[in-house]
Amino acid sequence: MKLLPIICSFLLLVSCHQEKRKTQKPTFLVGDWVCVNDKEGSITYETWHTNLKGLGYTLKEKDTTFKEILSIVTIKDTLFLKVEGVNENPTLFKFKQQSATSFVCENPKNEFPKKIKYYLENNQLKAIVSAKDFKIDFVFERYNTKFINL
């Protein structure tokens, strides 16, 4: 019976000890990607560097019709996808779910999208941007051309 208080004390000590987990960065994004399911006449690219800063843009012929600066940032031990260049101020999407090959982030206050999901599937990078009743799917494949360094 003398062992029971020791075991209880040990369990209490272990349960009260909160280990800080190191945030896992989504390194699966790193690379140069081209969208293979764009509207005809347009082509979308995403480039992610090892520092998890990226650039997304769409070309129609030689004109840039869309451009965003992307980055994965840590604020108070929480990961966010930061999107700049679309709205007047940077927009942060808080990571809600994450694995080694995917993440889901959300910003319910943003008009569109409210939710962004990135994941690897069959050597393709897929992204879904969505709000309540509308979503856009992107399917990217790797390519070897180097673009702007961020």
According to CATH, what is the class? Mainly Beta
**Low-confidence runs of at least 5 consecutive residues:** 3-20
Q: Report the strand count.
A: 10
> How many DSSP H or I helices?
1
Please state the structural category. Answer: mainly beta
- Mean pLDDT across all amino acids: 87
Sheet with most strands: strand arrangement: 1-2-3-4-5-6-7-8-9-10
Shape annotation = globular
Spatial extent as radius of gyration? 20 Å
Fraction of residues in β-strands: over 45%
CATH fold naming: Lipocalin
| Strand and helix order | HEEEEEEEEEE
Instruction: Please tell me the CATH architecture by its name.
Output: Beta Barrel
Q: For the terminal residues, how far apart are their CA atoms? A: 64 Å
Main sheet record: 10 strands, antiparallel, barrel
Helical residue percent?
under 10%
- Counting structural domains, the number is 1
Question: Could you explain the architecture of this structure?
Answer:
Strands 1-2-3-4-5-6-7-8-9-10 form a ten-stranded antiparallel beta barrel. The chain has one domain (24-142): Lipocalin, CATH 2.40.128. It has one helix at residues 3-16, and strands at residues 31-35, 42-48, 53-60, 63-75, 78-84, 91-99, 102-106, 115-121, 124-130, 135-142. 9% of the residues lie in helices and 51% in strands. Residues 3-20 have low confidence and may be disordered. Strand 8 (115-121) and strand 9 form a beta hairpin. The chain is mainly beta and 150 residues long. The chain has one helix and ten strands; from the N terminus they run H-E-E-E-E-E-E-E-E-E-E.
